[in-house]
Amino acid sequence: MNAEKKICQNCKKEFIIEPDDFGFYNKIDVPPPTFCHQCRLQRQLLFRNNRVFYRNKCALCGKEVLTVYNPNQSFVIYCRECWLSDNWDPVSYGRDYDFSITFFEQFRSLQASVPRSNLYQTNFISSEYCNYGLDFKESYLLFGGYNNERVYFGNQVFNSKDSLDIAFVEKAELSYEIFECKRTNRVFFSHHSDDCVDCRYLIDCNNCLNCFGCVGLKKKQYCAFNEQLTREEYADFIKSENLGSYSAHLKYLEKLSTLEMDLPHRYARIFKSASSDGDDLSEAKNTHFAFTSRQVEDSKFLFFIRNNVKNCYDNCFQGFNSEFLYEIAHGFGGSNSAFGVRNHYNQSAYYSEDCHDCQYVFGCEGLRKKKYCILNKQYSKEEYEKLVPKIISQMKDMPHKELKGTIYTFGEFFPPSLSPFAYNETIAQEYFPLSKDEALACNFKWEDLEKRNYQITAETNNLPDHIKDTSDDITSKVVGCAHKGKCKEQCTEAFKITSFELRFYKRMNLPLPRLCPSCRHFQRLKQRNPLKLWHRRCMCEKAEHGHSGPCKEEFETSYSPERPEVVYCEHCYQKEVY
Predict the structure, then answer these.
(1) Taking a C-beta distance cutoff of 8 angstroms, is the pair 184, 173 a contact?
(2) Which run of H or E residues covers position 509?
């Protein structure tokens, strides 16, 4: 089969379906998509709210709970304990399939009636204001990950403790403002750096100790802005710098950025992989358009997928022994399934949400350990196998239509109108930021947050420049965020410095932050390249790298041609840097 060009229903841009893509769609028996990959990802992210919380009461036990579901929406909310209990039966909400109305209209009705868990927490201890995780202890505003202790303001953090303002991090300790880092101790203001200790302001560094303001270093010690120093010279350098000063911090960032632009960039951060493209990718085989993923094989269009994944397309925040999954988001495991949200270890599940350990379910909500269910109604094996093909045929003959004119039939993920969240409540805003007018023009829901009217008692421009000049009474003040709510970053407009934070800043000699936790999170995400690829040629022209004239190596890279960075292929980068 030949490659086929299509026009995306949503953005109206051209995209290509390759022969291998058709092979995958045939294997799982779904039609090819009518939306481009970017629009498909945006729609999946629209179904996850990490950090916008509301107060409500459990509809079963009456306990007051924190929840990601707006009370203005018509959802039934249970506390996590009640939702996981045997005190209610999701099958009791089952209903017959109505062939006179569209499938998605019927699923929307089911969504409104079946109770939902207030948050997605498992074994959380003193970590109320956290979501999407396992084994959190004494943490605060931590979203995604497992086995963390005393981690504040984090996102997708694993096996870490005593760290603040970190994202997509593993095995960090006593670290601050790091992004896409692994195995760090006392590392601050750094990104894409692994196995480093006692370092500040690093980019793309590995196995470094006592380094400051460095880019692209490997197995180095006592370096400052890529200059090799002696142990004594480095100690004198550190003593001479004004490390706890915010104004000095801004100068360090500016100098680091200049150094980064002066050095060549690796076309992609791909390690221990074969026949694969994307970025921040490791242990991949025959995998394409994959980002921040590892241990994946024969897959495509992935974002944050890991741990033994094979033959999966269009998955995000998923993984853990998954196989033959298509358009599945925010869950764990599973096989031979498509079009699902927050499902765990299902098999042959289609168009289902919050279903765990189920087999052969279609259009179901909140089921656990069930087989042969449609719209939460129980059927026999024979009845199920007879009815599902009829529903699929009806979905094709009677497609669901949104206000923008987009059409959703069998083979497409849930329409945006079925998301339980407004656009600006979800992580779609993190990767595809929109203003209110832009979101409404796309027919996305938007939630005008209540006016907070905080009594700000400390403006950021009046905060002490140096942490040593900061008194303990800062913890009683309401600090105004420097963005003042005028950004697209879910700004809370004001924030407080906790006593835990203050002790950490003073202990590590770090300046006070000037942005609220949400805006700080968005700034960290900006250190990642776009989740897109461009076809480019290596920019190296050095003959000593083994080529006569300009290098002719071509590759897929997340650096767009308009960007100013000098981008090298892997061979030339290795020759230049190592």
Answers:
(1) yes
(2) none
CA–CA distance, 316 with 290 (Å, rounded to integer): 10
Beta bridge partners, 145, equal 157
Q: Residue 77: which H helix or E strand, with range?
A: strand 77-78
Q: What is the pLDDT of residue 198?
A: 98
C-beta separation of 323 from 333 below 8 A: no
Instruction: List the one residue out of 316, 287, 350, 373 whose CA is nearest residue 30.
Output: 350
Q: Are 216 and 564 in contact (CB under 8 A)?
A: no
Q: Which long-range contacts (CB under 8 A, 24 or more apart) does 75-79 make?
A: 75/111, 75/112, 75/116, 75/420, 76/112, 76/113, 76/114, 76/115, 76/116, 77/115, 77/116, 77/117, 77/118, 78/115, 78/116, 78/117, 78/118, 79/117, 79/118
Beta bridge partners of 494: 480
- Contact criterion met (CB below 8 Å) for 135 and 122: yes
Closest CA to 140 of 506, 514, 504, 526: 504
Rounded distance between C-alpha atoms, residue 289 and residue 301, angstroms: 5
Among residues 430, 162, 200, the alpha carbon closest in space to that of 292 is found at 430
Q: How many angstroms from the chain centroid is the CA of residue 388?
A: 33
pLDDT of 373 over the 80 cut: yes
**CB–CB of 318/306 below 8 Å?**
no
- Structure tokens given for 259: 């150094």
Q: What is the pLDDT of residue 529?
A: 97
DSSP labels for 428-487? HHHHS---HHHHHHTT-----PPP------B-GGGS-SBGGG--GGGGGS-EEPTTTT-S
Instruction: State whether residue 225 is helix, strand or coil.
Output: coil
pLDDT average, residue stretch 248-277 = 97
As a whole number, mean pLDDT of residues 528-543 equals: 96
Nearest residue to 537 (alpha-carbon basis) of 488, 572, 489, 578: 572
End-to-end CA distance of the chain: 43
Query: Measuring CA to CA, which residue among 13, 14, 17, 44 is closest to residue 33?
Result: 17
| pLDDT tens readout for residues 150-183 | 999 999 999 999 999 999 999 999 999 999 999 9
Nearest-CA neighbor of 322 among 28, 9, 13? 28
User: What is the DSSP secondary-structure string of 102-162?
Assistant: -HHHHHHHHHHHS-EESS-EEEEES-TT-BSEEEEES-EEEEEEEEEEEEEEEEEEEEEEE
Which whole-number Å values give the CA distances from 206 to 35, 194, 203, 219, 348, in the listed order?
39, 5, 9, 6, 42
Residue with tokens 């109320």: 128
- Is it the case that residue 1 has pLDDT exceeding 80? no
Contact 403, 416 (CB under 8 A): no
- Whole-number CA gyration radius for the chain: 25
* Structural contact between residues 163 and 508, judged by C-beta atoms closer than 8 angstroms: no
Q: Are 279 and 289 within 8 A, CB to CB?
A: no
Q: What is the pLDDT of residues 420-430, one digit of tens each?
A: 999 999 999 99
Q: What is the DSSP letter of 88?
A: S
Helix, strand, coil content of the chain in percent (nearest 5): 25, 35, 40
- Across-strand partners of 535? 556
Structure tokens at 567: 């981008």
